[in-house]
Amino acid sequence: MTTSTSDPRDPIRRRAADLGFDVCRFTGIGASWPATARLQAFLQAGRHGDMEWMAATAERRGHPLALWPQARSAVVLGLNYGPETNPLDGLALRERGLLSVYARGDDYHEVLKGRLKQLGGWMAARLGGDLKVFVDTAPLMEKPLAQQAGLGWQGKHTNLVSRDFGSWLFLGVILTTADLPPDPEEADHCGQCRACLDACPTAAFPAPYQLDARRCVSYLTIEHKGPVDPDLRPGLGNRIYGCDDCLAVCPWNKFARAGREQRLAARHDLAAPPLAELAALDQEAFRARFARSPVKRTGRDRFLRNVLYAIGNSDNPALVPAATARLDDASPLVRGAAVWALGRLLPRPELLELARAHAGAETDPDVRVEWERVQSA
Q1: Which residue has the higher pLDDT, 271 or 206?
Q2: Are 279 and 159 found together in one domain?
Q3: Which of 25, 98, 174, 352 measures 20 to 30 Å from 346, CA to CA?
Q4: From the candidates 136, 164, 183, 366, which is the catalytic residue?
Q5: Same domain, 250 and 297
Q6: Does the annotation mark 136 as catalytic?
Q7: d(Cα 354, Cα 340) in Å, to the nearest integer?
Q8: What are the counts of helices (DSSP H) followed by strands (DSSP E) for the chain?
Q9: pTM of the model
């Protein structure tokens, strides 16, 4: 009688590759996590801003077993979305808006979830037991799991860094009740480098491996619901949805290659869209333009807030009409951002003339503050 030495992970890896995943690794989930203490410190310091869902789900988020006690193993998968060109080149195009690389194609949540469900169904039929799939939409910390499974390590910018894919991996996780052999954990290879920390335009890293989301451009342009702190607005530049600076400067990107997934490739109309064109979007046009994009989650008003901040940072008087047209917008958030943009672009006499025409009739307190601020500057 011969004993089989086949690795039960190998068929899963092959099936994952067939589905388009670039990496598939495994880890057990019984051990304690340093990530638990880091999460608690992050929340206690208030660095999550108004992402109240993080605090509300902290107990379940603290460890995979708190989310699903029956789980025994995690299959951690990565999909490369590396850009073909340096995304920071777009910062020089100040009359155009810059979207984070991940948001220039189809919504990665939908792309990955469909494939994870296919892989999960295949695993259930082969291995039995129960499983659950996760793509950044449940209280599960994917990045610590990915490091534990050996996909990469959490760099000083707190994002995952891979020796093969740099900072450009989408992560998906399958928790399963099956016992699967773990892969070795990845070590930290950041060394003395601090390129990501120095690149942040709003100084969002109080220390290596620590992020204050309240200063992060990605948080401010996506998660934050109200007006952005005026002191942070210049740091947004022309970034209108997310920020790639800390990712793009990582030296490990030199080993990465452009992602091959066509659905995640940059759409022509989202590569560097004109700010004036975006500022004119109404609700219907916004929904149509971003129907398949993760941008749709932010909503039109918050997105136009970002567009108008970018207009204010453009130093381009030709964009004044685009901002002026939004002074009568139905959204106070948009109106307030338009006031700020015009305060940056217009000569004072013209600005005061606009204030006389609009400020007195304004009823929203936040917008009134914007008018008072530009008039007293």
Answers
A1: 206
A2: no
A3: 98
A4: 136
A5: no
A6: yes
A7: 12
A8: 19, 8
A9: 0.93
